[in-house]
Write a structure and sequence with these properties.
Aspartate Aminotransferase, domain 2, 3-stranded antiparallel sheet, 12 strands, about 15% strand, globular, binds 4'-deoxy-4'-aminopyridoxal-5'-phosphate
Length: about 400
């Protein structure tokens, strides 16, 4: 019996290998056209035009310890309570996490005063941006975003067959009139990051309201507030009031920035119930893992830690702006946990030269040429010693005194 089985397996194998051996390049070429019976799988039209998203570098050849200021991660790291909660999950990895993220929604609801039924949690706010595209845009539709907006808007739009429409900004700031002028009958979603990454500029609450009021009702406005927690002042609410007062606005938030949990991939959104119910149908059943849920809930509740991270950021934002401007480097945006100085287009002093100089000192910042900003560098505000190092290095690079 075993012998018989072995013989038949062997003969099957030899049949398969003969088929492969006799397949000519011509056959393969025919099958690749997609018309032959042996056609290979082909991605949907347009998918191969999607550019790869490149994250910030984290290592440099020849440098052991680097100063990584390339991904807008938190300077102070996560709350100690989040780390304890994270460790606590280790004893229960056998169980699926709560697919409804109830404890995390409760924490968000308690801290922000929001209805938990109007919340959705995702594997990073990235996932939620993608869900919005999957739910509301498709082939033939248009998705509007600002010219220097977060790169994933265009990528997710293309992933569902929609066309991204990049709208010119005004002095690196979202321009409501230009956005409205770009809207067509095919527009389904408008993305505005507020503050915007990488420009660090902000649209006022009044301008956001004007945008929403002037957009057609069937267009979803996504206010991406990934950097909301770095904003001070009582006038800014991340888009919360707009979500509460309109049936078609979504506010997205993340635990990757001020909460220092980028590695765990957790984000959330506040939206009208009808939109939440739509997005909930599309997400994977256990999209946020157990460790992420536990750590994020604890991080959200540790308001004192968030406050320290805010204070640290504010202090270094002031120092960085002052230093760069004293070096005659133009900086427009002042929000977020990063700065975006513009370097002169003069040989030896360009953004590329500055980047190379900083790398020679073991400092990694972000080139933003792929955001259409070849003369700028985005520098995340890091820890005290990291900030001292990067400000000293940029000062030296510009030929100033490094004090
Ligand atoms: N929106 C903006 C404006 C961002 O800068 C980022 C992260 N770079 C995200 C969304 C996504 O963040 P995450 O998926 O880590 O929540």
């Amino acid at each position: 019996m075993a012998k018989q089985l072995e013989a038949s397996v062997l003969s099957m194998f030899s049949l398969i290998s003969t088929r492969h051996a006799t397949k000519t390049e011509q056959d393969l070429a025919t099958s690749n056209t997609g018309v032959g019976p042996m056609a290979l799988p082909q991605p949907r039209a347009g998918l191969m035009d999607i550019p790869f998203y490149e994250g910030g570098k984290s290592s440099l050849k020849g440098h052991g310890r680097v100063i990584k200021l390339s991904s807008n991660e938190s300077a102070l790291g996560p709350s100690p309570a989040a780390l304890i909660a994270y460790a606590g999950v280790a004893s229960n990895l056998v169980r699926y996490p709560d697919g409804n993220a109830a404890a995390l929604k409760d924490a968000i609801s308690d801290v922000h005063g929001l209805d938990p039924d109007q919340l959705i949690c995702g594997a990073g706010s990235d996932e939620i941006l993608c869900l919005v595209c999957r739910a509301y845009a498709g082939s033939g539709d248009e998705v509007v975003h600002t010219a220097h907006g977060f790169l994933m808007y265009g990528i997710y739009a293309r992933s569902v067959g929609a066309t991204p429409v990049a709208v010119a900004e005004n002095n690196l700031t979202a321009d409501v009139d230009a956005i409205l002028a770009a809207v067509t009958d095919a527009t389904k979603i408008v993305f505005v990051a507020n503050p915007n990454n990488p420009t660090g500029t902000v649209l006022s609450g009044a301008e956001l309201v004007r945008l929403r009021e002037s957009l057609r009702e069937d267009i979803v406005l996504v206010v991406d507030s990934a950097y909301a927690e770095f904003m001070g002042g009582s006038c800014y609410d991340g888009g919360q009031a707009l979500v509460e007062s309109t049936p078609n606005t979504v506010m997205t938030r993340t635990f990757s920035k001020i909460y220092g949990l980028a590695s765990l991939r957790v984000g959330w959104a506040f939206a009208p119930r009808s939109i939440i119910e739509t997005l909930e149908r599309l997400r994977s059943p256990f999209n946020v893992n157990g460790a992420a849920l536990a750590a994020a809930s604890a991080a959200m509740r540790d308001v004192a830690h968030t406050r320290s991270a805010f204070d640290h950021n504010l202090r270094w934002m002031g120092a960085a702006l002052q230093r760069f401007r004293s070096l005659d480097l133009d900086v427009v945006g002042e929000a977020g946990n990063f700065v975006l100085p513009k370097f002169p287009n003069v040989p030896g002093k360009t953004a590329a030269d500055a980047d190379a100089f900083l790398q020679s000192k073991g400092i990694i910042v972000r080139r933003v040429a792929n955001y259409g900003l070849p003369d700028h560098l985005r520098i995340t505000l890091g820890e005290d010693d990291e900030m001292e190092a990067v400000l000293t290095a940029v000062t030296k690079f510009m030929g100033g005194d490094d004090g």
